[in-house]
Design goal:
Elements lengths: L1 H6 L16 E5 L2 E12 L4 E9 L8 H14 L4 E3 L7 H9 L17
Length: about 120
C-alpha cells in the first residue's frame, strides 16, 4: 500500500486481487519498488487483464516496470490465451512500456460515470 500511495494513488487495487496469485514485484533493500498484477484472471475463460502496474518515482527509468510486466506476462501465458490491459492514451510512459513488451493498441474507449437522479 505504501508503494501505491507514493507512486499510483488513483489505483484500482483491492487486496482480494492478491488471491489470484498473479502479482509480481521488485524489492530493493526490503522496499517494494515496482509491481505488476491483474484486475482480471480467469483460467476458465483463458483471459487476464493486467492492472495496478507501477514503479516508485525514485526507481523509474531503469526498466523495472517493463521487467515485472514481462515476467508477469510469461507467468500468465502458462494458463491463459489472452493478456490484455487498459491504459490512458495520454500516459505516454506506460504506453511505451507496454509497447516495448509486445502489447499493441486494439481500440480506444471512453469512460463515463453516470449518476441517478
Amino acid at each position: 500500500m505504501n508503494l501505491y500511495a507514493q507512486a499510483y494513488p488513483d489505483n484500482w487495487f483491492d487486496a482480494r486481487m492478491l488471491d489470484t496469485g498473479q502479482y509480481l514485484g521488485v524489492r530493493e533493500g526490503g522496499e517494494l519498488v515496482a509491481v505488476a498484477g491483474v484486475h482480471v484472471f480467469s483460467p476458465a475463460y483463458r483471459v487476464a487483464a493486467l492492472g495496478n502496474v507501477t514503479t516508485h518515482p525514485r526507481w523509474r527509468g531503469r526498466g523495472l516496470g517493463a521487467a515485472v510486466v514481462a515476467a508477469l506476462c510469461v507467468r500468465l501465458r502458462a494458463s491463459v490465451t489472452h493478456v490484455t490491459l487498459n491504459v490512458k492514451a495520454d500516459n505516454a510512459a506506460a504506453v511505451r512500456l507496454y509497447e516495448r513488451v509486445g502489447f499493441t493498441r486494439v481500440a480506444d474507449y471512453d469512460e463515463w460515470t453516470l449518476t441517478a437522479r
